[in-house]
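Input:
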Amino acid sequence: MKEYQTITEISGPLVFVETDEPVGYDEIVEIEIGDGQTRRGQVLESASDYVAIQVFEGTEGIDRDASVRFLGETMKMPVTEDLLGRVMDGTGQPIDGGPEIVPDERQDIVGAAINPYSREYPEEFIQTGVSAIDGMNTLVRGQKLPIFSASGLPHNDLALQIARQASVPEEEEGSEEGSEFAVIFGAMGITAEEANEFMDDFERTGALERSVVFMNLADDPAVERTITPRLALTTAEYLAFEKDYHVLVILTDMTNYCEALREIGAAREEVPGRRGYPGYMYTDLAQLYERAGRIEGRDGSVTQIPILTMPGDDDTHPIPDLTGYITEGQIYIDRDLNSQGVQPPINVLPSLSRLMDDGIGEGLTRVDHADVKDQIFAAYAEGEDLRDLVNIVGREALSDLDNKYLDFADRFEDEFIDQGTQTNRDIDDTIELGWNLLSMLPKDALNRIDEELIEEHYREDGTTEEVAAD
Amino acid sequence: MSQATESDVRKDGIIESVSGPVVAARDLDARMNDVVYVGSEGLMGEVIEIEGNVTTIQVYEETSGVSPGEPVEGTGAPLSVDLGPGMLDAIYDGVQRPLDVLEEKMGSAYLDRGVDAPGIDLEKTWAFEPEVEEGDSVEPGDIVGIVPETPSIDHKVMVPPGSEGGEVTAIESGNFTVEETVVELDSGEEIRMRQEWPVRQQRPSVDKETPTEPLISGQRVLDGLFPIAKGGTAAIPGPFGSGKTVTQHQLAKWADADIVVYVGCGERGNEMTEVIEDFPELEDPITGNALMDRTCLIANTSNMPVAARESCVYTGITIAEYFRDMGYDVALMADSTSRWAEAMREISSRLEEMPGEEGYPAYLSARLSAFYERAGYFTNINGTEGSVSVIGAVSPPGGDFSEPVTQNTLRIVKTFWALDADLAERRHFPSINWNESYSLYREQLDPWFVDNVRDDWPETRQWAIDTLDEEAELQEIVQLVGKDALPEDQQLTLEIARYLREAWLQQNAFHPTDTYCEPGKTYRIMDAIKTYNDEAFEALDAGVPVEELTDIDAAPRLNRIGVQEEYNEYIDELEDDIASELRELY
Ligand SMILES: Nc1ncnc2c1ncn2[C@@H]1O[C@H](COP(=O)(O)OP(=O)(O)OP(=O)(O)O)[C@@H](O)[C@H]1O
Ligand SMILES: [Mg+2]
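Output:
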């Protein structure tokens, strides 16, 4: 292994080194600075006489005398089942004072693409216990379903509620035989306070034992954020596809990850894409998000819930926009609902789960699920529209039916969405609640529901069934 | 991908630099667009720029660990596909490597590097039945034999376009591999079932005709309002989650094409898996055979190398043209052309080319039009007629149609299906906006609908369009004053328009019956709503209040026609009931 003391330029997170030997693209580098500290980095560009290196821990303190070693391999993550219960920093070094990690294998953190032919289509319903998700935007095993939020909104509470409550109904009854469940938590640039919120909840509920935590905090180096999710996903793939775990990966906050990409792009003087983010951000994000899924013949699965905060609450901003183009739907956290005190403040209308259609129905959830969901969407959208109008013309100017839609929208938010962060509703309760609400509308307005199902479930007398709420 | 066979010996080069998918090599003796093998692992790449002694290559595989000093080997041949029996029911990556073969060769569910595989199975034998006899004279394109490739499709074995032609001196019949000679010509030329074609070059034809037949999609809003022709072009732009992929899948399932080439370009892995799992089980409504029997899939998902994303649309269209040459109607779906354009942008920026609009290369528009120009209704060089219809999804950033890819595409294509986030949000599917979308084929296809569906198709459709237009205008007023402030006739129009939207335009892709709607049914639903309209307006003229007209019991049944299999009886009865209930009111 050759050492160079030939740094020619240091610029932002980048270091340029003259070399006289070929260096592999993406290879890992160690830079030793005066006081004996080492920093790690990765080759971004390799030419015959120089290389460009991106330094993970920041370039402060590096000078032209620093010595640079090329390790001759790409970045690896040591993986083992013993990682469960452990807390690491954003580069994968344990920070919990626990024993040294003895790896089973070392895996490349830039995961190879899953062959689309080898995938298995995800269609196993995950019950999150949250009606807005289970009923309206169902999550399935192996899906990537981000939370689109914004600053000051309780997206973390929702993520924690999902992590706590997620279960697969049949397996609950069949007790221990199915695969085990694990949570991987990858934090990028979140505040110490937010991090504590997660850690406290993990500890309080005992979830930590079946979790692996990677923490890059707000005051940790930004460039490091580009590897944290890759470490998390490499661990997830190992646990899922080699150890048969059903892994739920929570990545927060993807916005900070993208900011780090932008910073590196700018330092490299690349031609920027929209709003200064690199033109390859779509591909880069896809290489993370596409690491969710199921593989034919393997028992485990990787389900991803990335969280991002939309700058300016704007979902056309490149970060949510590119994410939405890659993920299999999205859950919107809504500022208005939040200020009305609705918990969790999920706006179901722009939210979507694309894998829902194959994951619900007879034998999976309930035979009436799809129709009930379609009808609720239609009715709630109608009610939402009328709210604007009613401000202008008043309720009296509206027809009877229109008034019913308005009431429907109100009750839908109060009873269906606003369940509180501690309530865990099963899918039956959620759908029954849907029928309670739909029965406010006249039968022939239920044009999305099969007539036989209406006969079976419509509450003629307007009675309601008791359902858990907070 | 075609394995270069007659590569003349050329000089190897040495890698000079590596930056993502772009590698520069020196001393390489290669032509523009030649395929090369890069590095000690032999990663597949293509020459995209030659400047002095430095050749720039886009690499179709991950380049991690590749370093300067490693060799680059030329093949002397441009990026080509293998053409012959075995392409249907197949799934390829962007450079025509069969993904099932790769899985087997790599022994892993993950895509490894440096593994190549021919596009069609070279060992498998096919039953070849000759169509010519000894002494016949044949020319390029002529069909010399037939191979029953799948239950749906007879594969026509053709004299390759580059051949000299001549007199048939020997002809075989029976089971052969694609590399064995099946026909010999007096020139000494041997014809095999396999041919190759460079993907960036259009296959020759005699003439392009004006298309006059619709590509029936089984989707009411498309067939009814915005039809595409066989040999036509269409774009589906829309923000994320608005229904591009579902629409493309619906077309791949139900369009009345002989062959479907589905190109998943830079999109999700699971969407391709869905096709692989669903299509073998779905029945072609026309032939009754499994849909997979007429389908060729190309999957270069978003996490697969970006350079192969650039090439996958060419791989797809070349395969489509080859089937067109046999006289088939081929439909190609590309989801999403934006990812292809972005791949061009990424490569271009690594080449440090002067960027055009929003960083896209200046040749974006030229590439897009060259691609869509390969669609059309053609007279082939063998005298048969065949078509390639191209339907491209566009994924505009932020859902804003003013961006370069959408705009440049709209300048070329003749059908525009505008997806609308607002409709998608209220789960009006397919969320194709009827005010913004258009089809420039509408008039030229009318005669077909008149002859094959109903003679007043154009007039009935026009009535539907007028009603929807009027609704859009009235809605603006309603937003200000409420519905009750409108005169009765306008209130009635709003109600009729609502049925057009809910019973006719809306169609549930996931309902077993509603998912496919034949043109006769599309007509009858529209006509049933018109019956209600005509009867109700008569009753209104006779003085019946509008609430009574909209309140009749029969009307909501209009919304149920879509899901009826035996729709004719259902509609007959419904129309009678609507008429009699309304007439009872006065
Ligand atoms: N015709 C339809 N019938 C029923 N549901 C539909 C229909 N079209 C779209 N949908 C619903 O909308 C969802 C999103 O559609 P789709 O995946 O096609 O969006 P897209 O435009 O391709 O998005 P992206 O650009 O992110 O790929 C589907 O998962 C489905 O739930
Ligand atoms: Mg799509």
